[in-house]
Write a structure and sequence with these properties.
The complex is a heterodimer of chains A (about 425) and B (about 100). Chain A has about 425 residues and is an alpha+beta fold. Chain A has ten helices and 13 strands. In chain A, strands 1, 2, 3, 4, 5, 6, 7, 8, 9, 10, 11, 12 and 13 form a 13-stranded mixed β-sheet that branches. Classes of the chains: A alpha+beta (about 425), B alpha+beta (about 100). Chains A and B meet through helix 5, helix 6, strand 4 and strand 5 of A and helix 1, strand 1 and strand 2 of B.
Chain lengths: ~425, ~100
């Protein structure tokens, strides 16, 4: 117990003095090379100390006592906020989450639990293979259209209404259903876009948030909220791979973005224990069915998840025109539905800068965690994922999500 | 003697408060998960179209929120619980670019 309190105190102390370099918060601020380097060194020291203390705190919560129901703590997640001045800490003042740490219980620890509690090793579950001729499989492939998403929207609104979270349901139900169907119908054609880089879209997500809050006495407010996330995973193709790009659809957005991600020089991460293998981007839809970067603050937010396949071999695809390759991106917010144009080169530069930031953060975090690893003790939790949320600005650069900011992209650094 | 009594009283009060809080918390978490389960159960009869993309995971998060507005700072405390429901698709395997 004393150890937990001590590590929590040192954790809070390390976060109280830590801050992101000012040039990361606002790249227009020029402080001179030496000052910027000094700020980055200071960041590395404080973030490294913070990661080390966070890692130590997690290790203290071994939770190796298994209840009668055989529940055990499988993973731990910590979310960090960043203040508008760049300071980071577990409790961010008005800050949105900007960095996430995810620890997963190690194999060693699982073995220890099994040995201690006499639990038998579970046999791997054999998934039933159903052939394409099976009536059940056919049902999935052929039945219904948008009935499932309509049912989700309807049930969700009903559940909110029954728990008194909302007072009117009719209009909300209709709006949600429309949004769901619109999003699903546009995005479900994603697998038709020919793949031209190791990055491919493996999942799309739709998020609905509803929050109710009020002030009870001056200075103190209470509230509650609900968030529903629907995730569509990509399955093996029903139809053959497409080799032709269709500029009229959103092919340029997906193709150019997947190539820009690859141009980030993923090799930067080669010498590290973690690799840059996944990327999330917030998206919106235009009236013509095109996709754009979305910085949404509303109730319904869409996102695409890219994953990198290092073993991918290029396939013959139709050559693309110059206009296709140079097609600009758009950034749209609720206040500016027309959005603003961002050139592809700007996004590429912004992504490169963002990956440098992710790399520096990783170096600092790794340093802290490695010093704990070196203690030659059995580790119960292993830092598996480090996630950096970044906001996209109109001029194509990415910066940390700060006060009132909404994340538009997330870099996932996953342990190899 | 007084000190010992005081320590015993404080220990009893703290442990009973903690036990009460712990019971309420586990009840609240259980209730939230049951609400989510009821929502998921209502969907089981539906099937979706023959697309390459299948609704495979639903995540529901509920949170409470207390905000303290001190001059220049707003401190938020947000206890939250999230349930994740995954649906397996018989006869279908997840996509891999090289089919591996």
């Amino acid at each position: 117990m004393k150890l937990i309190i001590a590590s929590l105190i040192s954790l809070l102390a390390s976060s109280a003095f830590g801050s992101f370099p000012q040039s990361w918060i606002n790249p227009d601020v020029s402080l001179g090379k030496s000052t910027e380097e000094a700020q980055e060194r200071k960041f590395e020291e404080s973030f490294s100390l913070f990661s080390k203390n966070l890692d130590t705190s997690v290790e203290q919560i071994k939770s190796d006592k298994v209840s009668k129901k055989h529940w055990y703590l499988q993973s731990i997640k910590a979310e960090l906020g960043i203040e508008h001045v760049g300071k980071f800490g577990i409790v961010g003042a008005k800050g949105e989450t900007a960095v996430e740490f995810v620890w997963v219980r190690t194999k060693e620890s699982k073995e220890l639990l099994r040995a201690r509690h006499g639990e038998k090793k579970r046999k791997p579950v054999q998934e039933k293979q159903v052939s394409e001729d099976n009536p059940l499989s056919k049902k999935i492939l052929e039945s219904g259209s948008d009935s499932e998403v309509a049912a989700v929207a309807s049930n969700y609104v009903e559940a909110l209404y029954k728990s008194n979270k909302i007072s009117k349901r009719g209009q909300l139900k209709q709006k949600l259903t429309e949004k769901f169907i619109q999003f699903k119908s546009i995005v479900s054609n994603l697998s038709e876009v020919p793949q031209s880089s190791p990055w491919w879209v493996y999942k799309y997500q739709l998020e609905i948030s509803i929050e109710v809050s009020g002030t009870i006495v001056p200075g103190i407010g209470i509230g509650n909220g609900n968030r529903l996330r629907l995730e569509w995973y990509r399955y093996q193709k029903v139809n053959k791979d497409n080799k032709i790009f269709t500029p009229a659809r959103f092919d340029a957005f997906i193709t150019n973005l997947s190539q820009d991600l690859e141009a980030l020089a993923v090799k930067k991460f080669d010498l590290h224990d973690y690799s840059f293998d996944a990327f999330k981007v917030g998206i919106g839809m235009g009236a013509k069915g095109n996709l754009f970067f979305a910085k949404a603050k509303g109730h319904v937010v869409g996102a695409l998840f890219f994953r990198r396949d290092g073993n991918w071999t290029p396939r013959p695809v139709q050559p693309r025109s110059k206009a296709f390759s140079e097609m600009p991106y758009r950034l749209v917010t609720e206040d500016n539905l027309d959005g603003e144009e961002i050139l592809r080169t700007q996004i590429r530069n912004g992504l490169s800068r963002a990956s440098d930031m992710a790399l520096k953060m990783l170096v600092a975090a790794e340093k802290g965690v490695r010093s704990n690893d070196a203690q030659n003790k059995v580790r119960h939790f292993d830092l598996k994922v480090l996630e950096l949320e970044l906001e996209l600005f109109g001029r194509g650069y990415f910066g940390p999500v700060t006060m009132e900011g909404i994340a538009v992209s997330e870099f996932f650094l996953i342990k190899k | 003697m007084k000190k010992i009594l005081l320590v015993i009283v404080i220990t009893c009060l703290t442990s009973s408060a903690y036990a009460g809080f712990s019971r309420k918390l586990s009840k609240a978490v259980e209730q939230k998960i049951q609400e989510g389960q009821a929502f998921i159960n209502a969907l089981e009869e539906k099937e979706e179209s023959g697309s390459d993309w299948l609704l495979s995971r639903i995540r529901m998060l509920s949170y409470g929120l207390i905000k303290f507005e001190i001059p220049f700072v707003e401190l938020k405390v947000m206890p939250m619980v999230e349930g994740r429901w995954v649906k397996k698709r018989p006869g279908r395997t997840l996509y891999r670019p090289d089919g591996v």
